[in-house]
Amino acid sequence: MRILIVEDDPVLSRQLADTLSRAGDAVDCAGDGEEGHFLGDTEPYNAVVLDLGLPRLDGITVLKRWRAAGRTMPVLILTARGSWAEKVQGIDAGADDYLAKPFQTEELLARLRALIRRAHGHATTELTCEGVTLDTRSGKVTVNGSPVDLSAHEYRVLRYLMHRKGQVVSRSELVEHIYAQDFDRDSNTIEVFVARLRRKLGVNVIRTVRGLGYRLEEPG
Ligand code: CA
Known about the structure:
Blueprint: E1 2-6, H1 10-22, E2 26-30, H2 33-42, E3 47-51, H3 59-68, E4 75-79, H4 84-92, E5 97-100, H5 105-119, E6 126-129, E7 132-135, E8 141-143, E9 146-148, H6 152-163, H7 171-178, H8 188-201, E10 206-209, E11 213-216
Parallel strand pairs: 1-2, 1-3, 3-4, 4-5
Antiparallel strand pairs: 6-7, 7-8, 8-9, 10-11
The structure holds calcium ion.
């Protein structure tokens, strides 16, 4: 999944980015409201972590502009401790969840996972398809109950396809959701990841839809 962090505290921003990357996400960071607004307006994110107190453009204004422009990605806001007024303002402006600073990184991860899950209509942390199970909480993948080892990028591709199960996902859409913005992107590598996933999971799990992309079948 591709996540945007808009946070002007460089230490906190770096720490969140590292944690999310380790959990298998592609992460972009913005250090002020204008840059954050621009990225959220132009790049396809699966979720956004948005601090409210930001230089150049405050978080509430950023959020209102995204929502006014029809940007519907899940947004979790970071508020000052004990400021109920900020929470109310944020939720009214279109936030999906909030966390008050300081917070435990594990709680942020759990809330983000829940937001992404709900945005894709899934009720649990486990995604399944044709004998393959992916637990978004532990990052573990099994085939018919046996664990399989996936590289970070293989995991990202599989997780994205599983979230979009039954739908056709183009290679460019995969590229946009598994790489961060500053990563050297090459859509040919997607074919390599899919080929490796087929070897590890079985050939029939990921179908090729000619000229369009890939699809995981809904269990019939
Ligand atoms: Ca701040």
